[in-house]
Amino acid sequence: MWHTVSRWMMTPHPSVEDGVVNRKIAFTTAVSSYTGRTHDIFVKNCGTYMLYNMNFNEWGTNWGLCVDTDVCKASVEELDQDHRLVNAWGSITQTDDRSLLRGWYRFKNGFEKMPETCPIANSCGSLKPGYLSQPHPEIGEGIVERKVCFGDADQCCSSSRDVLVKNCGTHFVYRLYPTTTYEKYCVEESSTTMCNANAYTELDDDWRGDTLPRTDEKRDDTLLTAGNWLRFTNYLGRMPEYSMSIHSCGFYYPGYLRGTHPTRAQGLVNYDICWSTSMTNQDQSCKQAQVRNCGSYYVYRMIKPPSWQYGFCVAQDQCKDARDMMDRWRLVVNPFVSGQSKAADQTTKKGWYRMTIGHGTMPLYEPDTNYGGAAYPSWMLGELPEQDDGEVERIAKFAGTSHQIKIR
Q1: Distance CA 187, CA 184 (A)
Q2: How confident is the model at residue 59 (pLDDT cuts 50, 70, 90)?
Q3: Is the per-residue pLDDT at 3 higher than 50?
C-alpha cells in the first residue's frame, strides 16, 4: 500500500534476551523532514521474527507502517549518467544533486561505486565533487553509515552528508539524499581512461611549433571541441611551459601551460592555459585546463579559446630550434655608440636564442656601463647549467633592474 507518510524505527531491534523493550518510531513527513513526528511502541524479538505493539488509533490519515527488505534484491533506482564519472569535467558540464530524490541507488557506469579518495576540483561535472571519506563495507557487514565529503578548489571536505551503503557482493547500493548547490555524488572510473587511443584527438600541425612565426593563413582552435582530450604528436609532444612572443606558432596570441607538467604518479591535474597577448603580458590571459601524464606522452583537456586569434602551441627542442643571435656589437668589450638604434633589445621577440659569437654565453660579472654595445649592458646571476640540468631559471641583471630568464 502506498502512503504519503511512512514510519521507521530510530534505534536497533532488541535481542531475544532483551524481552519486551520500548522503542521509538519516527514519521517521514516531508522530503527534508525525516523525524517530523515520533511515537513510542513495544518490540519483542521472538528469535526468527519480531513482534510490534503499537496504537494505530493515534495515526493520522495516510500514515503507514513500513517493512524492511533486502535492498540488494530490491529494484532500486539506477544512475548511469556519464557526467557523474570522476573524470568528467565540471568546466564543461556542470550539474548538482539538489533534485535527487531520497532513496536507494545503484551506479551502473564506471566502476559502479563512489571514489574513496578526494577528486580534484571540477571533477564529475561539478564544482563540489562527492566521495566516500571512509572505505566501502565488506560483504556481511550489512547496511552501514558512511560520510560523503564534497570538496572544492580549496579543501577536500568543505561540506559533508551521511549516507547508507551496503555491499551486495557484485555491486554496492547507496541510500542517498538531496544535496545543496554544486554538490554531486561521483562515480569512480579508471584514472587512465583519457590515455586510451580512442579517447583523444591527435594534433600534428607543424605550424604549432613555439619558435615558428605566424603566417597570413588563418588558424582557428575554436573549432576544436571544448572539453575533448587532445594529444600533440609532433616536436616534443607537449605544450611550452613558458610564455612566447606574440605572433608565434601560427597565431596572434600563442598559448602555453602555466607550470610544470605533471609526473605520471600525480595523475590528473588542474592547470591554466595562458596566452601571450603582448610583448610583456605573462600569466594574465588564462583559462582552465586539465593535463594527464600518460607515460610517454601528455593529454590535455581545454576550454575553448577566447577567439580564433588564440591558439595552442607545441614546445620544440630549444637546442635544435633556437634563433641565432650573432650581432657583434653584443660582445662585452664593445663600447656603446650613441645613435646605434640596433644596439637595443626593446623590439627583440621573446623566445629561445643561441649566441653564436664570442664565448656564446652571457657574462657572469657586471660589465661597465656603455659597453656590450648598449648603454645598459646585461649579465647573468648564477652559474651556467650542466647539460643534464635541462632547462633552468636564472636572473639577468641590467643597470638597477633585473629580469627572469630561462637557460638550457
Answers
A1: 10
A2: low
A3: no
3-state secondary structure of 84: helix
Contact 277, 283 (CB under 8 A): no
Tell me how far apart the terminal alpha carbons of the chain are, to the nearest angstrom.
77
Residue 4 has pLDDT above 60, yes or no: no
Q: Which residue matches cell numbers 548538482?
A: 96
Residue recorded with cell 579517447:
199
Buried b (16+ CB within 10 A) or exposed e, 125-136: bbbbbbbbbeeb
Residue 6 pLDDT > 70: no
Residues 6+ apart with CB under 8 A from 28: 5, 6, 7, 8, 34, 35, 36
Provide the 8-state DSSP code for 352: -
CA distance 105 to 206: 50
CB 6 within 8 A of CB 36: no
Using the structure block, give the residue that is written with the C-alpha cell 551502473.
108
Q: Say yes or no to pLDDT of 218 above 80.
A: yes
Name, in order, each residue with C-beta under 8 angstroms of 190's C-beta and a sequence gap of 6 or more. Answer: 111
Q: What is the pLDDT of residue 5?
A: 42
Helix (H, G, I), strand (E, B) or coil at 329: helix
Lowest mean pLDDT among 9-13, 108-112, 279-283: 279-283
Structure confidence by residue, pLDDT tens digits, 262-309 = 999 998 999 999 999 886 677 778 999 999 999 999 999 999 999 999
Cβ atoms of 109 and 82 closer than 8 Å:
yes
Largest interatomic CA distance in the chain: 108
Edge to edge, what strands does the sheet with 268-275 contain? 200-203, 229-232, 298-302, 285-293, 268-275, 253-258, 310-312
Residue 1 makes CB contacts below 8 A (sequence gap 6+) with 64
